[in-house]
Design brief:
alpha+beta; Immunoglobulin-like; 3-stranded antiparallel beta sheet; 21% helix
């Protein structure tokens, strides 16, 4: 037979008192995180306050509005603008006069495209804009095409 010390023995039940491992019979264990007893016992925190949610939403809206405004402003006021002033067609080519508005210290290369009646590109030409120190320039170029051009556009201008 094995002998146990006093520290190994479970405490003796008091006479007249019934003990249950779960506590009193009428008490049910908390089953939800929203139960106040559960929150007080385990330190469950409630969600963000209404004021904090509104503040974060307002800050997010302000940031998004700022980004959209910045992008809109830069799209409405580009640093480089090129506009076709006039063009004349001569069979399978077009002579184009166009204006370039750019920062004075930049050199550019503009791509011009000739389109037919269907809007398909039938000819392109790259025109270097090498004049430093001038911000507005009138340029002229000739585009060779595979058909009769109906319109001419400046597709883009990039730094050279």
């Amino acid at each position: 037979m094995t002998e146990y010390s006093a520290t190994d023995q479970p405490p003796a039940a008091e006479p007249g008192a019934e003990r249950s491992a779960a506590g009193p019979a009428d008490a049910t264990p908390p089953t939800s995180f929203s139960d106040p007893e559960f929150a007080s016992r385990y330190g469950v925190k409630s969600g963000m306050s209404r004021t904090r949610k509104i503040t974060l939403a307002a800050a997010g809206i302000c940031v998004l509005a700022g980004v959209a405004g910045y992008i809109g402003w830069n799209e409405a006021h580009p640093q480089v603008q090129a506009t076709v002033i006039s063009f004349t067609t001569n069979g399978d080519s077009a002579t184009v006069k166009f204006e370039v508005d750019k920062p004075a210290d930049e050199m550019l290369e503009c791509t011009l495209e000739a389109e037919d009646v269907k809007g398909e590109v039938i000819g392109t030409v790259n025109v270097p804009i090498l004049d430093k120190g001038t911000s507005k320039l009138d340029q002229q170029a000739t585009i060779s095409a595979t058909g009769t051009p109906n319109t001419v556009i400046v597709a883009n201008c990039v730094k050279a």
